[in-house]
């Protein structure tokens, strides 16, 4: 009798992540993961006591991907990079984006980036270095509202046909500058 194939915890998470990318987090089941691995359900239960534990491991993977995207330098402006990372995540992982953002998913709180880290990244931008944390929070919130709306339109095919990633980033940059300028105006820096 040939030896049984052993599946590492990482291989099981990979299989579950692949399912989540295509079908959403709640589509992860022990049976589907076993089928993806070409095994019985036993290896999954050896590594995870319940399906929720496996889903949490997938959420850690999603969080790590989002964090890596946030650390990537897409442009010379650290603040713009935050928005670009969000747009790229929505485009590359559209099912996960829809699942986490558009379906009031209970898992969203588990993958949110740290506000402290986000503020630190924002402060690296010369155009934002003059603002207090309260002002940065307001700027970030306004840009998140815009960026999420833009991402929802993008992943649902609601943008004009000629609206490629470059145009999306240009619009994100333009609106970001407008929000910053309006904040500086209210602060009395611009007359």
TrEMBL record:
Location of the DNA-binding region in this protein: 29-48
InterPro entries per UniProt: Homeodomain-like_sf, HTH_TetR
SUPFAM superfamilies per the UniProt record, alphabetical: Homeodomain-like
Gene Ontology molecular-function annotations: DNA binding
Key words, A-Z: DNA-binding
Xref: Gene3D superfamilies: Homeodomain-like (1.10.10.60)
Domain HTH tetR-type: 6-66
Keyword set includes Oxidoreductase: no
Protein name: TetR/AcrR family transcriptional regulator
Organism of provenance: Lysinibacillus antri
Taxonomic lineage of the native organism: Bacteria, Bacillati, Bacillota, Bacilli, Bacillales
